[in-house]
C-alpha cells in the first residue's frame, strides 16, 4: 500500500488503515489509532462548489459519496447515522445520470464557496442562478462539473468582501538602532503591499506601551499604558475610548468608529510616518537589561482587537529582540546578576517567573481563541526572548514563530515576506477563523487532537471518555491555516458498539475558514476504512510506520510538558519494546531469531533517532529553542516531521549522481561531499581531500572541470532546499574536522567511537551513547523475553 499516493487523494495519513473492533485489541496495537489531517492539503483537482453543503439534520454530516440516495422520493440517507434527509427544492432533477459533485465517488474532498456570491444565490433563486444549472434544475453531470468546479488557485479569491483582515504590529523599541532600522524598512515594505481594505494598527513598547492613533496625520497622538501592570480587556477599551453600542431588539452591537485600527487606504501616510520616526529607546536601570513590557504590549493589542468590529480575521505580529523584564509575562529580572532561565532551572523550580508567565499566557491564549486572533512572534536576538513562555498563545492560535539571530537576515526577510504573499486577484493568501469538525461512524470516538488548535469543548456522540491533548470535543478552533498545517487526531473504539468484520466505518472532517478576501469556505473530506479482526493481515499491511513515528513524536512532546526528558525517553523505550514483542517474529529467549517485517522494520530506527533528537534530549538547547522546535514538529505533516526526526543524508562523488547514504559516521569519507538536511539546518560537508583541493583552487583550473561541477551541484541543491522551505533553514558550509561539522556529527549514528576500533583517518564521534546497532540488539533481547 502506497501511503503517499493515498495522502495525495485524501490529504490524510493513518497510523493504522484497518482498525480492530474492540478496545482491548486496540490497546494491544501499542501505537494509537490516529489520523494526521492536513485540512487545506493542496490537491491536483479540487471541486469548488458555489453553494452551501447539505447537512444531516441529526449528526451534522455533509452529503458525501457514501450516502445512499433514493432518487424516486428525493431522499438521501446519512451514512453516519442512517437518518433519511430530504433534498431541498434546489436539488430537484437529481437522478442517476445527473448528480452533484459531492456525490461523485472520485471526490472524497470537495470545497464549498460560501462567499458573497454564494450567499446571494442562496437567498435568491438557489441553484437556478448558478452557472451549470438551468430553470432551477441540475444540468447533466458533465456540464455541472465543467462549470461549477474549479481546479485553479485563482478561483479561491473572487471579489473582495468589505473590510479586510486586521494586522496589529507590536514593535520592541529596545531593539538596537541598526536592527530597528532594518525592521522598519521591512515593515514599511509590507504595509506598501497590503490591500487597501486591510486594517492596520501600531503598538510600540519598552517600559511603557504606546498605542498609536493613526487618525492623526498632522501630529503624533499615542495612548500610554503602564508596562508593569496587567490590564483587562474592558480597561483597555475604556482607556482607548472604544465603546460598543447597546444592541437593539433583533439587532447587533456596533462599535463606534475609532482611529487606532484603520484601513491602509485611510492611514498609510500616518502609520508610515510613525514607523519611520521610531527610535531605539533601550530603557535600562544601572546598566542592566532593557526594560521590556512584552506581556502588557500583547495584552493591549488583544484588547484593541477585542473592542473592534473585525475580531474574526486578525493577526498580532510581535517583533522583539530580547526578554520581557517588566510586568506580566516576565522572563528574567532586569539585573544582569540574574541569569536567564535554563531547562534545569525550570525543572528544579529555581526560576521565580516561569510558571506565573505561563499562567498569564494561558489566559491570553483563551482570549485569542475567543476573538479569532492569531499571535505571531518574530524573535531576532542572540539571547533568549521568552519564546518558551509565548509558545502557548502562539501555538494555540496557530501563529507563526521565528527565532533568528538578526532582523538583518535572510531568514527574517523571507519568512515575513512569505506570510504576506498575495494571489492573482491581489488578496492576501491567508486563512482565518478556522474550525475543524469531526463526524464519525458509531463506535469510533475521538480522544483529542495534537497540533496548533484549541478545543471548543463541544461534546458529541463521537467524543471519547479519556481526553488527550486538546480533547473533550469534536470541534476545534484554529486562528489560521496554511496548506501545510497538520493536526493529529487520536481515536478509540467503543466496546458497546457491535460491528461486523469486513464492514466499513466512516470519518468526515468539515473545515470552515475565511480566505484572505473574507469569503467563507467549507472543505469536506469523507473517507472510509474497514474493521478487521485482531492479528488480521489487513492490520499488518495497513500500518504506516512513518505516520506512526510522527504521531508518537507528538505524544512524546505532549508528555514532556509534565515529565522530565528521562521519563519521556523511558516511556518511548517501553512502548517500543511492547511494539517489537507484539509484531516481531522470533523464538522466545533467542534474540538472534528476531525479525520485523518490512512494514515495521523502520519504526525502531525512527524511535532511536527521536530519543536523541532536540525534541526530547534538551541538553544542548535553550528553553526557547526547544519551544520553537516542538512547535514546528507539532504542525508539520508526515514528510516534514520525519525529516526533523531522522534527517536525510546524500553523498556527492566523482563516481556518479548523488545517492542517499546511511545517517552514520561511516558515511563521512575524505573524497566525497555530504548534503545533510534536518529541516532546521542544511549542511554541506566537504571531505578532507575535497576541502583541501577547494582551498588550493583546483576548482578554478580548467583541468579539474569535474571538481568544479561537483561543488556547483551540491551548492545548487542546497540552495534549492533553503529557498523552498518556510521557516528558512540555516545553510552551513563546513569541512571535515572543523568546528561547524558538529551540526552533522550530532545527528549521525555513532557506529565509530573512542571506545571502538577504527582505522586511522576515519571520523570518530566521542560519545557514550549506544549506536543504532547496539540499540537494536538490546531491543531484540528485551522483546524476545515476551
Protein described:
- The protein is α+β, with helices and mostly antiparallel strands.
- It folds into 4 domains: 3-155 and 427-533, Immunoglobulin-like, CATH 2.60.40; 166-419, von Willebrand factor, type A domain (Rossmann fold, 3-Layer(aba) Sandwich); 547-642 and 777-783, Up-down Bundle (Four Helix Bundle (Hemerythrin (Met), subunit A)); 647-748, 3-Layer(aba) Sandwich (Severin).
- Helices cover 30% and strands 22% of the residues.
- The protein has 22 helices and 33 strands.
- The strands form 7 sheets. Strands 2, 4, 8, 19, 21, 23, 25 and 26 form an 8-stranded mixed sheet that branches. Strands 11, 12, 13, 14, 15, 16, 17 and 18 form an 8-stranded mixed sheet that branches. Strands 1-3-24-20-22 form a 5-stranded antiparallel sheet.
- A hairpin with a 2-residue loop joins strand 9 (133-134) and strand 10.
- The two termini are 30 Å apart.
- Residues 658-744 form the Gelsolin-like domain.
- It is a peripheral membrane protein.
- This is Protein transport protein SEC23.
- Its main location: membrane.
- Belongs to the SEC23/SEC24 family. SEC23 subfamily.
Amino acid at each position: 500500500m502506497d501511503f503517499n499516493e493515498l495522502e495525495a487523494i485524501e490529504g490524510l495519513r493513518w497510523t493504522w488503515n484497518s482498525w480492530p473492533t474492540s478496545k482491548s485489541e486496540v490497546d494491544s496495537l501499542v501505537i494509537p489509532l490516529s489520523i494526521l489531517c492536513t485540512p487545506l492539503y493542496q490537491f491536483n483537482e479540487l471541486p469548488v462548489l458555489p453553494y452551501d453543503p447539505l447537512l444531516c439534520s441529526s449528526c451534522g454530516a455533509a452529503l458525501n459519496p457514501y450516502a445512499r440516495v433514493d432518487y424516486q422520493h428525493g431522499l438521501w440517507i446519512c451514512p453516519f447515522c442512517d437518518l433519511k434527509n430530504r433534498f431541498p427544492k434546489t436539488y430537484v432533477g437529481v437522478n442517476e445520470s445527473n448528480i452533484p459533485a459531492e456525490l461523485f465517488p472520485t471526490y472524497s474532498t470537495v470545497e464549498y464557496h460560501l462567499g458573497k456570491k454564494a450567499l446571494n444565490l442562496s437567498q435568491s433563486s438557489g441553484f437556478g442562478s448558478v452557472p451549470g444549472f438551468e430553470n432551477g434544475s441540475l444540468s447533466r453531470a458533465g456540464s455541472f462539473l465543467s462549470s461549477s468546479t474549479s481546479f485553479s488557485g485563482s478561483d479561491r479569491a473572487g471579489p473582495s468582501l468589505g473590510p479586510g483582515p486586521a494586522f496589529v504590529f507590536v514593535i520592541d523599541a529596545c531593539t538596537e538602532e541598526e536592527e530597528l532600522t532594518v525592521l522598519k524598512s521591512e515593515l514599511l515594505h509590507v504595509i506598501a503591499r497590503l490591500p487597501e481594505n486591510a486594517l492596520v494598527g501600531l503598538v510600540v513598547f519598552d517600559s511603557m506601551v504606546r498605542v498609536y492613533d493613526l487618525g492623526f496625520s498632522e501630529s503624533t497622538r499615542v495612548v500610554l499604558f503602564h508596562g508593569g501592570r496587567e490590564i483587562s480587556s474592558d480597561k483597555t477599551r475604556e482607556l482607548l475610548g472604544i465603546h460598543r453600542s447597546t444592541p437593539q431588539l433583533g439587532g447587533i452591537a456596533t462599535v463606534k468608529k475609532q482611529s487606532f485600527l484603520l484601513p491602509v487606504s485611510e492611514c498609510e501616510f500616518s502609520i508610515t510616518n510613525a514607523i519611520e520616526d521610531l527610535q531605539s529607546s533601550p530603557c535600562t536601570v544601572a546598566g542592566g537589561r532593557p526594560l521590556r513590557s512584552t506581556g502588557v504590549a500583547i495584552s493591549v493589542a488583544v484588547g484593541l482587537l477585542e473592542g473592534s468590529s473585525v475580531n474574526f480575521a486578525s493577526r498580532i505580529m510581535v517583533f522583539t529582540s530580547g526578554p520581557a523584564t517588566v510586568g506580566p509575562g516576565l522572563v528574567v529580572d532586569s539585573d544582569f546578576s540574574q541569569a536567564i532561565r535554563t531547562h534545569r532551572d525550570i525543572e528544579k523550580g529555581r526560576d521565580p517567573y516561569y510558571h506565573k508567565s505561563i499562567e498569564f499566557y494561558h489566559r491570553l491564549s483563551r482570549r485569542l481563541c475567543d476573538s479569532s486572533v492569531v499571535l505571531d512572534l518574530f524573535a531576532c536576538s542572540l539571547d533568549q526572548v521568552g519564546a518558551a513562555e509565548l509558545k502557548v498563545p502562539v501555538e494555540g492560535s496557530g501563529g507563526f514563530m521565528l527565532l533568528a539571530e538578526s532582523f538583518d537576515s535572510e531568514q527574517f526577510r523571507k519568512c515575513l515576506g512569505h506570510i504576506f504573499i498575495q494571489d492573482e486577484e491581489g488578496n492576501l493568501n491567508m486563512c482565518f477563523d478556522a474550525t475543524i469538525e469531526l463526524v464519525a461512524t458509531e463506535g469510533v470516538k475521538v480522544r483529542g487532537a495534537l497540533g496548533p488548535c484549541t478545543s471548543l469543548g463541544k461534546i458529541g456522540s463521537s467524543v471519547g471518555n479519556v481526553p488527550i491533548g486538546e480533547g473533550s470535543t469534536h470541534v476545534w478552533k484554529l486562528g489560521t491555516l496554511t496548506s501545510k498545517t497538520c493536526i493529529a487526531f487520536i481515536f478509540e473504539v467503543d466496546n458497546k458498539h457491535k460491528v461486523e468484520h469486513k464492514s466499513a466505518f466512516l470519518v468526515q472532517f468539515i473545515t470552515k475558514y475565511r480566505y484572505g478576501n473574507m469569503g467563507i469556505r467549507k472543505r469536506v473530506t469523507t473517507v472510509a476504512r474497514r474493521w478487521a479482526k485482531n492479528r488480521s493481515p489487513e492490520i499488518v499491511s495497513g500500518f504506516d510506520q512513518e505516520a506512526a513515528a510522527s504521531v508518537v513524536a507528538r505524544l512524546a512532546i505532549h508528555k514532556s510538558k509534565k515529565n522530565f526528558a528521562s521519563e519521556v525517553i523511558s516511556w518511548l523505550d517501553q512502548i517500543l519494546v511492547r511494539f517489537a514483542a507484539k509484531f516481531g517474529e522470533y523464538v522466545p529467549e533467542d534474540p538472534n531469531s528476531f525479525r520485523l517485517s518490512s512494514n515495521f522494520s523502520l519504526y525502531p530506527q525512527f524511535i532511536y533517532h527521536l530519543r536523541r533528537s532536540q525534541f526530547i534530549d534538551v541538553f544542548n538547547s535553550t528553553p526557547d529553542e526547544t519551544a520553537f522546535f516542538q512547535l514546528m514538529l507539532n504542525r508539520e505533516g508526515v514528510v516534514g516531521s520525519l525529516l526533523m526526526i531522522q534527517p536525510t543524508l546524500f553523498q556527492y562523488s566523482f563516481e556518479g549522481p548523488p545517492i542517499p547514504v546511511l545517517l552514520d559516521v561511516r558515511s563521512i569519507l575524505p573524497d566525497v561531499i555530504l548534503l545533510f538536511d534536518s529541516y532546521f539546518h542544511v549542511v554541506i560537508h566537504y571531505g578532507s581531500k575535497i576541502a583541501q583541493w577547494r582551498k588550493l583552487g583546483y576548482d578554478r583550473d580548467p583541468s579539474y572541470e569535474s571538481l568544479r561541477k561537483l561543488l556547483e551541484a551540491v551548492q545548487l541543491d542546497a540552495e534549492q532546499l533553503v529557498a523552498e522551505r518556510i521557516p528558512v533553514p540555516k545553510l552551513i558550509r563546513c569541512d571535515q574536522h572543523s568546528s561547524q561539522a558538529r551540526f552533522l556529527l550530532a545527528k549521525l549514528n555513532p557506529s565509530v567511537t573512542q571506545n571502538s576500533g577504527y582505522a586511522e583517518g576515519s571520523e570518530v564521534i566521542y560519545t557514550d551513547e549506544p549506536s543504532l546497532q547496539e540499540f537494536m540488539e538490546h531491543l531484540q533481547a528485551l522483546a524476545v523475553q515476551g
